[in-house]
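quick one, 749 residues, struct below
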Amino acid sequence: MRTRILRPVLALTFLALTFLLPLSAAAMQAQSPDTLAARVDGVYRVGAFSLSFSNNGLRISHAAEPARILWASVPGRAFLGAAQGQADIRQFGTPDGSYRIDDRLLAQCLSQSIDALEPATDTLVVRGRLRGPGCDVGYRLAFDAAGANQLRFRLQLDGPQAAQLNRSFLRHASSADERYFGLGQQLTWFDQKGKTIPVLVQEHGVGRGLPGFTQLFDLLEGGGGGSEVSTGAPAPHYLSSKLNSLFLENTEYSIFNFQHPERVDIKLFTGAMTGRILYGRTPLELIREYTAYAGRMPPLPDWVGRGAIVSVQGGTDEANKKLDTFERAGIPLAGLWIQDWPGVRITNAGKQLWWNWELDESYYPRWDALVDRLARLGARMLVYINPFLSTEAGHDSLYQQARQAGYLVKKQDGTPYLIRNTNFDAALVDLSNPEARTWIKNVIKNELLGRTRASGWMADFGEALPFDAVLANGNDPAAWHNRYPEEWAAVNREALAEAGREGDVIAFHRSGFTRSPGQGTLFWLGDQLQTWDGYDGIRTAIVGMLSGGVSGFSLLHSDTGGYNAFGLTVLGRQVPVIARNKELWMRWVELNAFTGVLRTHEGLNPAISWQVDSDAETLTHFARMSKIFRALGFYRQGLMQQAADSGAPLVRHPFLEFPSDPATYGLRYQYMLGSDFMVAPVVTRGAQSVRLYLPAGTWIELWTGRPFEAGAGAWTEVATPFGKPTVFYKAGSAAGERLVTTLKAEGLY
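---
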């Protein structure tokens, strides 16, 4: 049971990367600040890439398109830098997965020379110096071909001062009209031009800048509202409108600064930087190249597409009562998701789980009979887990095992690092410890796969590894902080493989980093507010899927209706302040029916949030949309295989399919399902129509069969009654025609 309460959750600040600091000419040996002095020139081949050096800097191209520049330094300016930094990192929140990072640069080497080039077979080493006041260090920049379309670069600092320099900088040229996409699951903006993005795994916040609410939340709780750039699953990776793409292999904290119209600045919190420059002719080719490193997600089991995964809680009797209701309503069920299977505690946030991953048979008696009933309905059981362990007596059996064996993240004094969550503390499993990994995998295999007979679970959290923690074998927590979500996904995946259940069981995660797609089976977008806005509401569910899809998260979905809700108790009765109503719930269902997974959540405060069974009309609407979701199963299966083969996301920004159309770049609230369907959900309160952009070609409106000639691309407005979200498919699409045939056969057309 995820927890979002009125406590500090997130406040992240950072110092924007600047190379333009006043330095004395003498100190720079007659060079200006951030000036490049290139003493060598020439064109060098590294694999299929050409690297051209001149006194203006470096330009990189590919043999397949030699006239196209994939990466270029700013003419006459340094493209590398280094510094000694002192970071003040404050971690807080509930749990502690939120950060304020202030970085003070003590010495900066921002002027660069290129002194020597050392070519070899498919490699090139660049040597030179970085200088500044009180700062003079050699560097080695090595290029090698990591594949036919991937140029890897490795920066290392050399010399007596190198050990003190713990920041590295990379700068390259851009243009005012170049747009930047990706950076992991960015929730507010798809286009990051003009933004500065902290690539740090963290709680995404509550409100995330929503005017009024975020400020009030911060005031009452000392922070925690978050910002437009906070996310639990970032990635140091971008793909641009000019089909340039770069990513870092590093897991340390980095900052990508796109604020300047004609350059991009990258700051990395270590002195050694490794990354890759990619070549591709299309956005999907570039995603293929990126996911060759990040990993690709396998197809979901067939059962996930048979209907909705519906959240219930409250014990066995309540679960059976809900099942009765769903059966009568004719809702096709893929699964029942019961997150409170380990039992509940009452905290100042309301009901929360005991994080002791054993079935509470007093709360859920006759569990096996419930699983058997689901099986007869053709549905599966899903549960919940996270990497924390409860420490309270009577609910601490797993904590005691892990503590005695040394499997927990520790403080400097060697005691378990207890992390605050509402009004209780919890310990965090040390996933850098191979023995701890084996232990938690056995918990998953014995308790989730074994005792509960689960076919899936929410694998929550992963953002809270402290920067000052002590890990097994001397592992660096600063490098492990962003890596922890990758390993949490890997542990779950390994448990499935060891139990022989890969391909039949899913674990869905909210935290992630660069290589999470290669480890995870499914991701969701965290805890949206139950609102309509683009800061933390329904609109962020679309943007998050679009941005995440660029960075390899090919299977993404959201909590239907959102999660966070808040109310006030007046005369003993809960009064909603922020909570979903019937309209928001129904529109969110329509959105999710045309994504990879349709899953509900009762929310943080179920009593004030509209639910699937709140009235008969809602049940009927949900049954209809669940059947439409099921009808699309044939198409999703093909898309999931494509994702497994190439990394192409199921939910796609129109730019991925129409990269030469600049009108697509700024789109945020419409998406394509695969290459055939254009979907524009209602994301405005009270709206009965949607205005959307259709790129070049002829499009067929799903519910009327009416063709729309878009010419070179055109806007149109479409009426959107409940139950018929705005969907177009390409004229001549076999998938579109098959969907229409299926909908007609099932009486849904």
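Residues 302-646 form a domain with the TIM Barrel fold (CATH 3.20.20.80).
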